[in-house]
Write a structure and sequence with these properties.
CATH superfamily of the largest domain: 5'-nuclease
CATH architecture of the largest domain: 3-Layer(aba) Sandwich
Number of strands: 5
Number of helices: 10
Number of domains: 2
Structural class: alpha/beta
Radius of gyration: 16 Å
Largest sheet: 5 strands, parallel
Distance between the termini: 32 Å
Length: 169
């Protein structure tokens, strides 16, 4: 099964749109580095974190050499957080994985290292492809993300999807 290594920004956006559980129903194995799961999911208590794990989210620790590589990426790319670099290294170390991120700098670095990268809108496309989320619910979720000032998705792509879904309703 294809492995998706996620940073937290995409998962937080999907949680805002009440689509996080649906994401875990997609035919992929979803993985997060341990530090991201522990440090950046501040909105989830222990029960919420355990629920995500019970639904299939895997949390993996990085071995020492991978931590050193992540630190080197962090040192060379000051716009990134160290936890983002952990996600990149985990994706690099996981055969044929995809990095799921909304961070443009992380995306650029990953692509320059030949790591396939996608974001929230790709996940919403996958919901349609795999018939996981009803059209109305997906449309409403994308509108919610469009209206949230703390969500940064490519506006043209987001609006294109909203208009297309609206025509299907």
């Amino acid at each position: 099964m294809q492995i998706i290594v996620s940073d937290t920004c995409c998962m937080i956006d999907l949680a805002k749109a009440a689509l996080l559980e649906e994401m875990l129903r997609l035919p992929y194995t979803f993985v997060m580095p341990g530090p991201l799961f522990e440090d950046e999911w501040l909105t989830l208590d222990g029960n919420g974190k355990e629920r995500l794990r019970a639904m299939g989210l895997e949390v993996r620790d990085l071995p020492g050499p991978s931590v050193v590589r992540a630190q080197a990426y962090f040192n060379d790319n000051r716009g990134l957080k160290l936890n983002d670099c952990f996600a990149l290294v985990l994706a690099e170390d996981t055969s044929e994985s995809i990095l799921l991120t909304g961070d443009a700098r992380l995306r650029t670095l990953a692509e320059s290292n030949n790591v396939e990268v996608h974001g929230v809108l790709w996940i919403t496309d996958e919901f349609e492809t795999h018939d996981i989320v009803a059209t109305q619910r997906l449309h409403d979720a994308l509108c919610l993300l469009r209206d949230d000032v703390l969500v940064f998705l490519p506006e043209d792509e987001l609006l294109r999807r909203i208009r297309r879904l609206a025509r299907l309703l």
